[in-house]
Amino acid sequence: MLYDLSLRMGYSYDVPASGARHIMRLMPLSLTNRQRLVAGSITISPTPDEQSHFLDFFQHPATAFMLRAPHEALDIRMQARVQVESQPIAADFSPLLADLPEEIAGIWSLAPDSPHHFLGDSPRLTPTREIADYARSCAKPDLTAMQIAHALCTRINKDFTYDPDATTVDTTPIEAFRLKRGVCQDFTHIMILALRSLGIPAGYVSGFLRTIPPPGKERLEGADAMHAWVRIWCGETIGWIELDPTNDIPAGTDHIVVAYGRDYSDVVPVIGVLKSYGSQRAVQAVDVIPLK
């Protein structure tokens, strides 16, 4: 599938802000045999006084910029064309849960995609007994790591209600878990914690979701903003797979990857600090248009 993407992220301040420093991770990745960034551009208004580009630990392109002068608003626009390839359906050669620790121990690499980075605590994810107990209910001893991941994906989709008014970007996983409501970020964090509690490496994927459904299919939840789903390591043979608990589907040609991380803190689209007081308002608009 070939897509044209457009994203607008706007911020307005009650009192003009100054000395603003931000980091952006907005441009889709080029991934071997998965997706290709054909072309892309980002515009920032007002024009930054300083701007630089770098790769973060997970080898994702990021842009840092600074605005010294007072400004009442910040407007960021991204446009890109991305080719997304269909993924073959892989047979389940993942190990049983009891055998997974031995396979993890056999991985000596600490490269960005090493499963070791995705097993323990991360900045936004601390283990909780309630979510661990929930995970164990899906972890039957005769199931493989992949089967458990799919079972958790389906269970979260069934037990939780998509409700954009129920949570905020700062809602913790346990708060969303108790509410049984939230958005893709909440469901993704809950599923990651559940998988890690079982010893299954899992991480956060930030990206975009097709906004216009194919003929005869329902529109997917979470398509008006940036989307999130889960990356799961299922052993040496299978490697990483990606599942979307918000929609209970594997990530496919509807999903466009921007960044991988341990949790949302590693992939925040725009983060920064500034000098101001009062409140601020944020708007986000996304269009994902299939071309063929």
Structural features, described:
This protein is α+β, with helices and mostly antiparallel strands and 292 residues long. It has helices at 100-105, 129-136, 145-159, 173-179, 184-197, and strands spanning 2-24, 35-45, 50-55, 61-67, 71-84, 161-162, 181-182, 202-209, 227-233, 240-244, 249-250, 255-261, 270-275, 280-290. Strands 1, 2, 3, 4, 5, 13 and 14 form a 7-stranded antiparallel β-sheet that branches. β9 (227-233) and β10 form a beta hairpin. This is Transglutaminase-like putative cysteine protease. It holds the Pfam family Bact_transglu_N.
* C-alpha termini separation: 6 Å
Number of domains: 2
CATH class call of the largest domain: Alpha Beta
CATH topology of the largest domain: C8orf32 fold
Overall geometry comes to globular
Q: State the CATH architecture of the largest domain.
A: Roll
- Please give the share of residues in helix: 10-25%
Mean pLDDT: 93
The main β sheet shows up as: 7 strands, antiparallel
Number of strands: 14
Q: Helical region count? A: 5
Low-confidence spans: none
Instruction: Report the sheet-strand fraction.
Output: 35-45%
Structural class: alpha+beta
- Cα gyration radius (Å): 19 Å
Order of helices and strands: EEEEEHHHEHEHEEEEEEE
Write the layout of secondary structure elements.
Layout lengths: L1 E23 L10 E11 L4 E6 L5 E7 L3 E14 L15 H6 L23 H8 L8 H15 L1 E2 L10 H7 L1 E2 L1 H14 L4 E8 L17 E7 L6 E5 L4 E2 L4 E7 L8 E6 L4 E11 L2
Parallel strand pairs: 6-7
Antiparallel strand pairs: 1-4, 1-5, 1-13, 1-14, 2-5, 3-4, 8-9, 8-12, 9-10, 10-11
Helix pairs in contact: 2-5, 3-5, 4-5
